[in-house]
Specification:
The protein is α+β, with helices and mostly antiparallel strands. The protein contains one helix and seven strands, in the order αβββββββ. Strand 4 (64-71) and strand 5 (74-79) form a beta hairpin.
């Protein structure tokens, strides 16, 4: 009976050591699965901490950023490897529309081969009787 208690104590010790790591791994997976993306409405600077003025991230118009924390009118965001607090009013959940390509989709592009001669005109079809 003493041997069983010793082995269950070892199992509990292993579980106690693994549980925090497993919990952190699951939290990491869940945070990326439910990440919220927003876009900057205009150029804005984010500060490292809410009560200081040290700039830690600079957003330009239409930058896509990830929301980490919401705290009232302030939002903790991440852009690449930069983090910072910005005003919630400077962000939108509507993805900006990309500008259309000049000429649109209806216009066929024209290509020219340097040094190539123009093809002779096609012969006219013979008249039909």
């Amino acid at each position: 009976m003493g041997a069983r208690n010793g082995s269950s104590g070892a199992s509990r010790d292993i579980a106690r050591r693994l549980l925090p790591g497993c919990a952190m791994f699951l939290l990491l997976l869940c945070s990326h699965a439910f990440a919220e993306d927003l876009w900057a409405l205009a150029p804005v600077e984010g500060v490292r901490w809410p009560d200081v003025t040290t700039v830690s991230v600079t957003l330009t118009e239409a930058d896509r950023i990830e929301v980490l924390v919401r705290d009232g009118e302030k939002v903790r965001v991440r852009k690449g490897t930069d983090f910072g607090w910005v005003a919630a009013s400077a962000l939108t959940d509507v993805e900006p529309v990309k500008p259309a390509v000049e000429g649109g989709d209806d216009e066929m592009p024209s290509f020219t081969i340097p040094g190539a001669e123009e093809a002779p005109p096609a012969p006219e079809a013979p008249p039909t009787p």
